[in-house]
Amino acid sequence: MMLQSAKLIGAGLATIGLAGVGAGVGIVFGAFVLAYSRNPSLKQQMLPYAILGFALTEAVGLFALMMAFLILFG
C-alpha cells in the first residue's frame, strides 16, 4: 500500500515538467511571431530555429512523461 502511494506521488511529481513544456512552446512561437512581425523578410531563416526550439522543448516533455511511466509501471 505504501509503495503504491509513493509510486503515484512520484509519477505526479514527474509530470510537473509538462507544465513547463507548455509554457516553453508558447515562448518559442511567441518569439517567432514577434521576430516575424519585426522583419518579415527573414522568415525562411527564422523558421528552422523555431522548429528546432519546438522539437527540443517537446523532447523534454517526452522525457518527463517517460519518467512518470517508468515510475508507475517499472
From TrEMBL:
Subcellular location: Mitochondrion membrane
Gene Ontology MF, one: proton transmembrane transporter activity
Transmembrane annotation, as ranges: 12-37, 49-73
Primary localization: mitochondrion
Domain V-ATPase proteolipid subunit C-like span(s) in chain numbering: 9-71
GO biological process, one term: proton motive force-driven ATP synthesis
Gene Ontology CC, one term: mitochondrial membrane
Lipid bilayer topology: Multi-pass membrane protein
Subunit structure: F-type ATPases have 2 components, CF(1) - the catalytic core - and CF(0) - the membrane proton channel. CF(1) has five subunits: alpha(3), beta(3), gamma(1), delta(1), epsilon(1). CF(0) has three main subunits: a, b and c.
Family note: Belongs to the ATPase C chain family.
Record's protein name: ATP synthase subunit 9, mitochondrial
Organism: Ancoracysta twista
Gene this protein is translated from: atp9
